[in-house]
Amino acid sequence: MSNLWIEALEPTDRRRIEPHLNERPFVQGQTLFDAGEAVDEVWFPLDGVVSLMTVLADDRMVETAAIGREGLVGVTCGPLNARASSRAIAQIEGSAACCPADVFSDALSKSEAMRTALSRFTENLLAQVQQTAACNAQHRLDERLARWLLTLHDRADADRFDLTQQDIAGMLGVRRATVSEVGALLEDRKLIARGRGWVEVLNRAGLEKASCGCYRMMRAVSTDLGVPLPKFD
Ligand SMILES: [Zn+2]
User: Fold this and answer.
1) Which residues surround ligand 1, an ion (CB under 5 A)?
2) What is the DSSP string of 163-217?
3) How far is the CA of 73 from the centre of ligand 1 (A)?
């Protein structure tokens, strides 16, 4: 397993950070860091998926982006912002190579190519966050659920994910009973299968048709910006 963002760097740039990487596993549901916390490490997922969650004052939260081994977690606002703007939660268990934030900042200051690579990633992330905000406000829940499952499927290595109805409800910002009803719609169409604590993608092409246009728009942006998703790399 490797991180695609690191893999695409020039060898000189890779050497600036690779000796400092520390591999760390994460389990599903684990908080990597919370909103408002000082971020002292940058996480480069090697497998698994991490969700960025926007947390409201009453502690409810909604996912605004998902990151797998195409990218990095912990630099959501650029190198000038040392505090996390969102909560990072492991959505699918995996592991990450962690780099001390000061080592990463130092490497960035020495390499224009690395700054460009980071900009590609953060522009793509911003597009994802914007699209998700509009999608959450405007699109039907079954379309949003299909879009969200595809986002995970693009970044996961398997068709089946460990996810409870509660996890899904939390991601989409709705009640658990509602997720159950909407999941049944996709299940009846044989697009997904569900069990206690898991969901499996059965028909990916069908799920793409069932999702709103947001999924295709996000895919197009990542292709245009040169941020290949693990599934299509
Ligand atoms: Zn949408």
Assistant:
1) 135, 139, 212, 214
2) --HHHHHHHHTS-HHHHHHHHHHHHHTTSEEEETTEEEES-HHHHHHHS-HHHHH
3) 24
